[in-house]
TrEMBL record:
<feature type="compositionally biased region" description="Low complexity">
    <location>
        <begin position="25"/>
        <end position="46"/>
    </location>
</feature>
<dbReference type="InterPro" id="IPR018476">
    <property type="entry name" value="GlyceroP-diester-Pdiesterase_M"/>
</dbReference>
<keyword id="KW-1133">Transmembrane helix</keyword>
<feature type="transmembrane region" description="Helical">
    <location>
        <begin position="113"/>
        <end position="135"/>
    </location>
</feature>
<feature type="compositionally biased region" description="Pro residues">
    <location>
        <begin position="1"/>
        <end position="11"/>
    </location>
</feature>
<keyword id="KW-0472">Membrane</keyword>
<feature type="compositionally biased region" description="Pro residues">
    <location>
        <begin position="47"/>
        <end position="71"/>
    </location>
</feature>
<feature type="transmembrane region" description="Helical">
    <location>
        <begin position="341"/>
        <end position="371"/>
    </location>
</feature>
<feature type="transmembrane region" description="Helical">
    <location>
        <begin position="207"/>
        <end position="237"/>
    </location>
</feature>
<feature type="region of interest" description="Disordered">
    <location>
        <begin position="1"/>
        <end position="78"/>
    </location>
</feature>
<feature type="transmembrane region" description="Helical">
    <location>
        <begin position="243"/>
        <end position="264"/>
    </location>
</feature>
<dbReference type="Pfam" id="PF10110">
    <property type="entry name" value="GPDPase_memb"/>
</dbReference>
<feature type="transmembrane region" description="Helical">
    <location>
        <begin position="164"/>
        <end position="186"/>
    </location>
</feature>
<protein>
    <submittedName>
        <fullName>Glycerophosphoryl diester phosphodiesterase membrane domain-containing protein</fullName>
    </submittedName>
</protein>
<feature type="domain" description="Glycerophosphoryl diester phosphodiesterase membrane">
    <location>
        <begin position="252"/>
        <end position="358"/>
    </location>
</feature>
<keyword id="KW-0812">Transmembrane</keyword>
<feature type="transmembrane region" description="Helical">
    <location>
        <begin position="298"/>
        <end position="321"/>
    </location>
</feature>
Amino acid sequence: MSDGHGPPPETPSGWSAEQPPPYSAPSASPWTAPGAQQQVPYGQPYGQPPQPQQPPGPGPQTPYPPHPHPQPGYGHTAYQPALRPGIIPLRPLGLGDILDGTIKLIRSNPKAVLGLSAVAALLTAVPVAVGQAFFLDLWDPETATSTGQLSSMTALPSQYAGTLISYAVQFVVVTLLTGVLTRILGRAVFGGSLSAGEAWRLVKGRVPALFGVVGLMAAIMVVPLIVFGLLFAAIVMNPSADSVGWLAGLFLLFVVTYIPYYLFFTTRFAFASPVAVLESRGPLDAMRRSWNLVTGDFWRVLGILLLTSLLVGLVSGVLSVPFTLAGTMFGIFGAGSATTAVVSAVLIAIGGTVGAMISYPFQAGVAGLLYADRRMRSEAFDLVLQTAAIEQQRQGWVHASADELWHPSNSARS
């Protein structure tokens, strides 16, 4: 046992100050005044200069401190904060832990996280910006001639074509980005870091599974849209006196049914991508695994995902709206000039990139940490993480084999 005279041990480099090393010297004496720079030795009256300490001999020791306090009983264990070797404490997470861990993920490796997100955001923003710039350049609100109408009709396809191309690029780029960010997050939980190249080498074998997950999710979301679209087309192609009423009723039915449908399935399959990357599962198995993990905590997961979307939309909107508004106004008032079209496209692309480079990693980080939280709550996975973290702390570095701990065979209740 400790005599309580020594100062607290220094925290090893790379580990949170919240958690003392498990195999280091015991903590300081409980009689130290909070915030004091110098400890009062055991039995030394307050207000007097400290006396040199002598090694304890066989003689009697001072039985009580000058200001006695209740002593813990036999077998009492002092509260120990949860291990926190990386971006989160290794225990079931609260909302604050998840948001804080996501911010720490971005700050701990900004070059890889923000750099990759900026590239992905730029690739998805450019087609929309180019289509929007052509639309603004060709559209002339003051022209009522047939030529002006023809120009406006020509501008509309260019705008929609840019949007469709952007969706196609987003499908590919964001899927790859999610996989890379998930792998970086998996190492950051232990306090380790990965470069973009290292993360890609670890993820590239999981790319087919990631595209399978995203493709199945897209199919689930698109099928109801196709059904409603066919019903809408049928009403329009066969007009009657009640067509307006039927269209209004169909729209109301779409809003009432599709929004809950969308929220339900996006929540149930929110962990499919992290599972596909960290647990090396196939698309269907990853979606089944996500469904099972969400079971029992659906409303909490849904609430955190909705709150995250709200926060991300607000922040990205604040960052991107000035550029998008400037590009739009510049294109409208300078229509007809090639230079104006280029400047407008650049401003719109910058706005989209700035907003998306924040939203992509934040949403991926929250989904990954929610996945870890659900495993800790339902499978006692925090015990596995703590055991590995203690061993890595003892050795002083994070092994690459830490990535294998995410496999479900390592769960304490598997």
